[in-house]
Design goal:
Alpha-Beta Plaits; four-stranded antiparallel β-sheet; 10 helices; about 35% helix; about 30% strand
Length: about 300
C-alpha cells in the first residue's frame, strides 16, 4: 500500500528552546486508520500542526498526497482535513452555513448535495438550520468534523476527537470514522484513550517527548510486545514459584508469565510432574495499555 503522507527527519524546536519533535520519520499508508498514542506534551499536536501547515518545522520534509507542505502549500492543504481539539466554531452561524463556508475557504464551488451528504453522515441534517450556540458539546464536535470534510479531503486528522464526550457518542464516532476509511479517506487520530486506539486503528504509533518510539500493525504490536498470564489456583499451597512465576501472599495462586505465542499445555504438564495440585486455571492477555505504559516508562528510564 502506497504512502499518502511521508514524513522524514522532522524536527521542531521552539524559540524558547523547547524541543517538541526529534527526527521523526513516519510513512502513513493510503486508506488506513493510524492512531498516535502519547501522554500530554508528547508532540502529537505539534506533529499534526506541522503536517497541516499551521506550524513551521525547524527541519525535515513532509509530503501530503504528493505535495510538499512547504513548497506546494495550497495543494497539500487541499488534501487535508483537520479536526482540532478545541471546540472553536462560529456560535451565531447555522450548521449548514458554516460547513458551506469552510468548503469555500478551499476554493471549492458550492455543492449543497455534498454538504447534505456530510451532514447526514454525521447525523447533523436535522440540525442544519440550528445556530451552533444551541448545540451540545458532542454535536459541536460533529460540526467540526463536517467542516473538515467539507472540501472533500483525502487525509483527515482528528486531534483528540472524543475528548470530553460521553461513552455512547464516542462509540458513534468510532463507527463514523470507520465509515470514512471505507469511503477512501485516510484517518490519523491522536488519543489518550487506549481503548480507542485498540478498537479503531489499523496501526498504532507511540510518541513520547518528541520521539516516535515505534509504529506497528496493531495485531503485530500485541503479538510482539504483549505477554500472557496463566493464573493457576492451587488446591494446596506451594513453597516457591517457578522461574517465570510469582506466588500470592497466601501461596495459593500462582501466576506464570509467557510470550503470546506460547501454549499453556507444556507448562501445566511441568506443574503436574512437579506434584503441584491444581484447582483451577485461567489465562489473561496483556492489554495495549500495559504495552503503552511499558514503552513510555521504559524510554524514560533509559
Amino acid at each position: 500500500m502506497s504512502a499518502i503522507v511521508s514524513i522524514k527527519g522532522l524536527n521542531k524546536t521552539y524559540a524558547s528552546g523547547f524541543v517538541a519533535l526529534k527526527s521523526v520519520d513516519l510513512e502513513i499508508k493510503r486508506g488506513e486508520i493510524l492512531a498516535l498514542l502519547g501522554p500530554n506534551g508528547a508532540g502529537k499536536t505539534t506533529l499534526i500542526n506541522i503536517v497541516c501547515g499551521i506550524v513551521k518545522p525547524t527541519s525535515g520534509t513532509v509530503i501530503a498526497d504528493g505535495h510538499d507542505i512547504q513548497r506546494d502549500y495550497r495543494r497539500a492543504r487541499e488534501a487535508i482535513g483537520l479536526v482540532p481539539q478545541e471546540l472553536s466554531t462560529d456560535a451565531f452561524e447555522t450548521v449548514a452555513a458554516t460547513v458551506r463556508f469552510s468548503r469555500g475557504l478551499f476554493g471549492k464551488k458550492r455543492d449543497d448535495a455534498h454538504v447534505e451528504k456530510v451532514l447526514k453522515a454525521l447525523t447533523l441534517w436535522d440540525k442544519r438550520d440550528n445556530k451552533i450556540m444551541t448545540l451540545s458539546g458532542g454535536m459541536k464536535r460533529r460540526v467540526l468534523i463536517a467542516k473538515a470534510l467539507s472540501h472533500e479531503p483525502t487525509i483527515l486528522f482528528l486531534d483528540e476527537p472524543t475528548a470530553g464526550v460521553d461513552v455512547e457518542l464516542r462509540h458513534d464516532m468510532w463507527k463514523m470514522v470507520r465509515g470514512l476509511r471505507e469511503s477512501g479517506v485516510t484517518v490519523i487520530l491522536t488519543t489518550h484513550y487506549i481503548e480507542e486506539a485498540q478498537e479503531m486503528a489499523d496501526r498504532i504509533g507511540v510518541i513520547n517527548k518528541g520521539e516516535l518510539l515505534l509504529v506497528e500493525e496493531k495485531a503485530a504490536l500485541m503479538k510482539k510486545l504483549g505477554k500472557r498470564k496463566l493464573i493457576v489456583e492451587l488446591a494446596e499451597p506451594i513453597a516457591e514459584a517457578p522461574a517465570n512465576g510469582t506466588l500470592s501472599n497466601d501461596k495459593k495462586t500462582l501466576t506464570l508469565t509467557f510470550d503470546a505465542g506460547t501454549t499453556v499445555g507444556p507448562m501445566l504438564g511441568e506443574l503436574n510432574r512437579a506434584g503441584v495440585q491444581i484447582a483451577d486455571v485461567r489465562t489473561e492477555e496483556t492489554s495495549l495499555e500495559d504495552i503503552f505504559v511499558g514503552l513510555v516508562h521504559g524510554k524514560e528510564a533509559a
